[in-house]
Amino acid sequence: MKNILITGGAGFIGSNFCHYWATRYPDDKLVVLDLLTYAGHREHLASLEKNNGLVFIQGDIGDKALVEKLFSNYMINCVVHFAAESHVDRSIDGPDAFIQTNILGTHNLLKAAKKYWLDAGITEHHFHHVSTDEVYGSLEADAPAFTESTPFAPNSPYSASKAASDHLVRAYHHTYGLKVTTSNCSNNYGPYQDSEKLIPLIIQNILLGKSLPIYGDGKNIRDWLYVEDHCRAIDLILTKGVVGEVYNVGGENEWRNIDIVNLICDQVDAALLAEPQLLAAYPNTPCASGGLAKNLITFVKDRPGHDRRYAIDPSKCHAQLGYHPQESFETGIVKTIQWLLHNQKNVMETV
């Protein structure tokens, strides 16, 4: 039985992981630590608190006394570390929070793990660190995808702070013997994602009849990973992964931003026409007046340090863990749109 501390568990990927894990391992104890900033929502976990015994604590991973108290009180033997400042634009405007949370907060967790596991002689433990493909920098269109041996070349304060945290996790394994693993994932999408991110922003702007802003020429390429596939990969890493190893988790779905937006426009229009009652709920969507969502597309000035292409080579996950994504982008985006249309409350107030 695991007693798992899940940092950032009220955020997008963290809350999906909590639901995934509670379904598959109902005997494990889940303890969520989340500061509930703009991207954390406790209501994502309400059913798990009510029905599965999930324990929620609002707090900062940088709070040394609180983190140590959780390790002690709940006999934590596994950490899955999602908590991070993660929006590139925000990191450009205000990098301090990214340094504080992503570097110093991660180090605080590592220090607590060393104290309550290594210094106490507890050999059965696991610290899993969730990171990003952005630590590797940018790829040219014809360059091979990132592997676990690709040198780090972060281009934004966000990716630089994540790269630093990756190095700290590695150092605590090689210096002290902490049992760690790290995963670097491609762009996630799916239920519970905050509306500042590309896919939910585009969907919600369509529903509201607002412009769909596309940076630059729209030809930046990302590898997209459906969030439940990411959760499956972390499960495999925790159960089958090699201590000290890094695993790149990709969706094998490379798309240009403009092609993603065009696909979403078509899919949202189709979903609304298939359920006319939704047109009444969103009277400003172009479809409600016979228009097309694509007409809302607007190209805006590119942001500083905007990496051209990210792509993950998941061969190591395939070979060592038997991991393969189950969702294509075409199937995953339909699930995402349907979830947002039928589960996201008060869309008019969230954008």
UniProtKB/TrEMBL annotation:
GO molecular function annotation: dTDP-glucose 4,6-dehydratase activity
InterPro entries documented for this protein = dTDP_Gluc_deHydtase (IPR005888), NAD(P)-bd_dom (IPR016040), NAD(P)-bd_dom_sf (IPR036291)
Looking up Gene3D superfamilies in the UniProt record yields: NAD(P)-binding Rossmann-like Domain, UDP-galactose 4-epimerase, domain 1
- For this protein, the Enzyme Commission number is 4.2.1.46
Signal peptide positions are none
Could you name the domain of life of the organism this protein comes from? Answer: Bacteria
Q: What is this protein called?
A: dTDP-glucose 4,6-dehydratase
**Keywords attached to this entry:** Lyase, NAD
Provenance organism:
Cellvibrio fibrivorans
Q: Which reaction does it catalyse?
A: dTDP-alpha-D-glucose = dTDP-4-dehydro-6-deoxy-alpha-D-glucose + H2O
Does the record carry Lyase as a key word?
yes
What is the enzyme's class at the highest EC level?
lyase
Family matches, as NCBIfam families: dTDP_gluc_dehyt (TIGR01181)
**To which protein family does this belong?**
Belongs to the NAD(P)-dependent epimerase/dehydratase family. dTDP-glucose dehydratase subfamily.
Obligatory cofactor(s): NAD(+)
- The answer, when asked if S-adenosyl-L-methionine is one of the entry's keywords, is no
NAD(P)-binding domain location:
5-335
